[in-house]
């Protein structure tokens, strides 16, 4: 099983790019995107625990696409507020996180939980112990670990994740210094890929005058996507279910690249949001202009024997 979709849906700059400028009464971004994709990565859960009532609402919002599932990022208190021991995050913090995730899981709408660690999280004995403790704490979820420092690119990392039944997140990011390079690892049943863009000039900037969205203001070319098509297919051969998430979100560029990836992987044209076609003429080549119903079935993938 292979799923491709964007990271997040609530961006002011998507108005008129991804979403219609004028929206009908009752319009919701997740409902709209579920017509084009069978997965979206929830990123609000990174900043604060996902509220159970919001999770229930979002399950209802994507009901028209029964094959749709979310993935969700773990609260940053567990990945960025790192202390010498796991006690840095309390039992109450864990309960708050689980409350929202469990609503999605009960509805069979939780495909994976992503633990996104920062570039500053290097592989040390203390870091490995911390990671192992977090993995044990949430072991009942389908976990995916994203690390950004090249010190984690080692057989010991793959062995740790494989032994824990945890997936590795293969990422595309600006390769600056000791940044981890693109890969095609599949350490558990879930395969995972995240494409962040390649804004070398803004990725690590501390210039407060540069808007935060510029970090993700990047559109991948067909030539840049081609190696990832090969990697995704390799991952999908070994994983039961593979997610490809585009995070280069400014002005809908993540949606553009996600649709291009789906078209290439399916070998067919795809339904494209009309506002997006107007801003990105390169989508004309892959746009299915025939009226179609919202996506009902995810991309077919292969399971390794």
Q: Can you describe this structure?
A:
This protein is of the alpha/beta class. The chain has a single domain, classed as Protein of unknown function UPF0759 (TIM Barrel, Alpha-Beta Barrel). Helices cover 31% and strands 14% of the residues. The chain is built from 9 helices and 8 strands. Strands 1-8-7-6-5-4-3-2 form an 8-stranded parallel sheet. Strand 3, helix 4 and strand 4 (110-116) form a beta-alpha-beta unit. Helix 7 (222-238) crosses helix 8 (253-266). The longest helix is centred in the C-terminal third of the chain and has 17 residues, at 222-238. The radius of gyration is 19 Å and the shape is globular.
Could you name the key traits of this structure?
305 residues, alpha/beta, TIM Barrel, 8-stranded parallel sheet, disordered C terminus
- Total count of domains: 1
DSSP, total strands: 8
Low-confidence stretches: 291-305
The shape is globular
Nearest-integer average pLDDT: 91
Characterize the main sheet: 8 strands, parallel
Strand content: 5-15%
H and E order: EHEHHEHEHEHEEHEHH
CATH topology name: TIM Barrel
How would you concisely characterize the structure shown here?
The protein is of the alpha/beta class and 305 residues long. The protein has helices at 29-33, 44-47, 52-61, 91-106, 125-137, 155-164, 222-238, 253-266, 274-279; strands at 2-6, 39-42, 69-73, 110-116, 143-146, 167-172, 190-195, 241-246.
Topology:
Layout: E1 2-6, H1 29-33, E2 39-42, H2 44-47, H3 52-61, E3 69-73, H4 91-106, E4 110-116, H5 125-137, E5 143-146, H6 155-164, E6 167-172, E7 190-195, H7 222-238, E8 241-246, H8 253-266, H9 274-279
Parallel strand pairs: 1-8, 2-3, 3-4, 4-5, 5-6, 6-7, 7-8
